[in-house]
Amino acid sequence: MNLIKFEDFSFKYDQAQDFVLKDIKLNIESGKFILLCGITGSGKTSLVRAMNGLIPQFYHGEIKGDVFVKGKNTKNVPTSTLSRDVGLVFQNPENQLIAMNVEREIAFGPENIGIPWDEMDSRIKECIKITDIEHLRKKAPFEISGGEQQRVAIASILALQPEIIIFDEPTSLLDPKSAIQILNLLKKILLEKKISTIIVIEHRLDIVLPLADEVILIDKGRIIEHGEAHYVINGEKFLNSGVNIPKCVSVFQKLMNQNIFTGKMPISIEETKNLINSIK
Amino acid sequence: MENDNMEKKLENLQILVNHLTYHYPDGTIALKGINLNIYSGEIVGIMGKNGAGKSTLIKTFNGLLKPTTGTVYIENDEVNNVLMSKLTRKVGIVFQNPDLQLFANTVEDEIRFSLKNLNFTKTELENQINLTLEKFKLKKFQNRTPFTLSGGEKKRLAIASIMCRNPEIIVFDEPTIGQDAEGVEFIRNLIKEKHAEGKTIIIVSHDIEFAIDNIPRTILMADGLIIADGPTNKILSQDQILNIGSLISPQLIKLSKFLIDLKIKVPEDVYIKENMVQFLGSYFKDKMGITEGGKQ
User: Fold this and answer.
1) Is A262 within 8 Å of chain B by CB?
2) How far apart are CA B38 and CA B276, in angstroms?
3) Mutate to test the interface with A, among B255, B260, B272, B282 (most CBs of A within 10 A)
4) What is the per-residue pLDDT across A67-125, written as a single tens digit (0 to 9) for each?
5) How many interchain CB pairs under 8 A, A with B?
6) Which listed residue, A175, B71, B151, B230, has the most CB atoms within 10 A of its CB?
7) Which run of H or E residues covers position B122?
8) A242, A245, A262: residue with CB nearest B182
9) CA dihedral A120, A122, A123, A126 (to 10 degrees)
10) Which of helix, strand or coil describes residue B1?
């Protein structure tokens, strides 16, 4: 099922000279872990802003075409309604956390959309369980670590039960181990069907690629490749796009250029190991 | 000979940290007794979990924070006894978030402010501003406010505003966060260039893939202490250290360990990309009997 549909959508910010999104045709389906990548300034953030109505309702400008979220046109339906379908988590959880303790933080969203108390209580319990933050329940959001804050931010978005969650560089401030734990948590939430689809913007492709079902590659405001992760990674456009190619991919890219290797490139260390085992 | 070396080493000692502790006013003890030598011309990485004390440590180098106990010497100056203005001329820190560093009305003014008080004549000052703008590809933004620049451009401006003062010691706090391949390449080249000029470079980073390629020596901090100090490839391949530092091995160290576990004989430095390509190239050729043209 199509959750988000872009129909020849273009957008230019007020007072900007160029269109930042150009002729976007895109279907976001349910059940996917989607990696959105592209170099700095390619339009990643603008694309996700157009997925929950922030563009054009909050950021004004010139529009061509339409975007539909579960059939609702983002031009007409208020962002407060759209945000129940599409949740956004930003890079720095500190900017998002406001309450006195973790429990209140998670309750904040559901409270504001008038969820009855008993249902809210059960939602809070469930979100705390999923994100594994029981021990933080009574703590203040500012006295816990970056990784823990990111878990709380995820729990507080989950409490709104959106179908789609978009993460804009969720791990950039975290150490490598915490980053992997957060990404694995997202994958678990998806597999347990707590959420229909997850879209992640990440520069650290080495840790996110092994989890991705689909990759969207954006360049100069256009989607230049979109498909199953292996398909995109094996394409010329990806390899020339200027994104951070993981080392294992770039090793096999070199071997391919030397005509030593001709198969499907491995996108993770696990796949690289399997490949080496298969020729041992 | 031994003595000569030792003397030479001491002569090159640039940062000397002795029994350094730092207590924040709220009672948090961020540094619990740091001892550290950094020599002139070194490239040193500082790694460790959030809250390990990395940022606190580097802030004592330019006088932003004064030691609670213990001493920090920058060359011959003990940081407690020297004016911060003198220290900031020697030690330039490029912070992680450029938004916290940039404040001027235009890109040009940002550089001008940084060069103020360095006793340039008016012509020299204008020349220096121009050179910096050109070198950091900021000329076309000269009259724009820094806040309308993209994330990558802001980062470049923040770096430029520190580099134009030509500090002897350059500290980068998480320089590769949010950077695409071109941005990372820019940082890599800048470090190479400054290293060639003999500058001392300190890099606080979580970026293990960048560290393994560009930083020869790494210091690992945990809970206000230094718990390991050595060659980066050694630090990033020991499970015990990785666990304490909440780090993971870079991809090619994982891969070389896997090859070793398979009892395949690999060169010691196979974790470097070019070496891995060469090694796997001959391994594949050998296993699959590839000659001309190649096949799988």
Assistant:
1) yes
2) 31
3) B255
4) 999 999 999 999 989 988 999 887 777 777 778 899 999 998 888 888 898 999 999 99
5) 115
6) A175
7) helix B122-135
8) A242
9) 160
10) coil
- Taking the Cβ of residue A76 and every Cβ of chain B, the question of whether any pair is shorter than 8 Å is answered with no
- Residue A163 tokens, joined: 């179908």
Which chain A positions have a beta carbon within 8 Å of B261's beta carbon? none
Instruction: Determine the residue of chain A that is closest to B288 in CA distance.
Output: A279
Residue A79: φ, ψ to 5°? -60, -30
Residue B189 to chain A, least CA–CA distance (Å):
16
Are the beta carbons of B151 and A255 separated by less than 8 Å?
Answer: no
Neighbours of A254 (CB within 10 A): 18
- Best mutation target, B50, B173, B242, to test chain A (most A CBs within 10 A): B50
pLDDT at B177: 85
- Please state, in angstroms and as integers, the Cα–Cα distance from residue B197 to each residue in A132, B42, B184, B189, B190, following that order: 50, 11, 20, 12, 11
- Number of other residues whose CB lies within 10 A of the CB of residue A270: 13
Q: Tell me the chain A residues in contact with residue B247 when contact means C-beta distances shorter than 8 Å.
A: 175-177
A251 interfaces chain B, CB cutoff of 8 Å: yes
Rg for chain A (alpha carbons), in Å? 20
Dump pLDDT digits (tens) for B191-201.
999 999 999 99
Cβ contact A235:A201 at 8 Å: no
Place of tokens 């230049």: A224
Are A269 and B262 in contact (CB < 8 Å)? Answer: no
Measured distance CA(A89)–CA(A97) in Å, rounded = 11
| Whole-angstrom distance, CA of residue B252 vs CA of residue B273 | 7
Rounded to a whole number, what is the distance in Å from the CA of A200 to chain B's nearest CA?
A: 14
Q: Do B252 and A260 touch (CB under 8 A)?
A: no
Sorted by sequence, the CB contacts under 8 Å of residue B3 that are 6+ apart come out as: none
Phi first, then psi, for residue B97 (nearest 5°) are: -105, 105
Contacts of A144 in chain B (CB under 8 A): none
* Contact call for A175 and B258, based on CB within 8 A: no
DSSP per position, B55-74: HHHHHHHTTSS--SEEEEEE
* Prediction ipTM score: 0.85
A34: part of which helix (H) or strand (E)?
strand A33-37
The least confident of A110-114, A121-125, A234-238, B234-238 is A110-114
> What digits encode the pLDDT tens for the residues B163-195?
999 999 999 999 998 788 988 999 999 999 999
Task: Using the predicted structure, report yes or no on whether residue A145 has a pLDDT greater than 80.
Answer: no
Closest CA–CA distance from residue B228 to any residue of chain A (Å): 17
Supply the pTM of this predicted model: 0.88
pLDDT score for B192: 96
Q: What is the overall mean pLDDT for chain B?
A: 90
Q: Give the burial class of A80: count Cβ atoms within 10 A of its Cβ; 0-12 exposed, 13-18 middle, 19 or more buried.
A: exposed
Instruction: Quickly count: other Cβ atoms within 10 Å of residue B4's Cβ.
Output: 8
**Bridge partners of A2?**
A29
pLDDT over 90 percentage in chain A:
61
d(CA A94, CA A212): 26
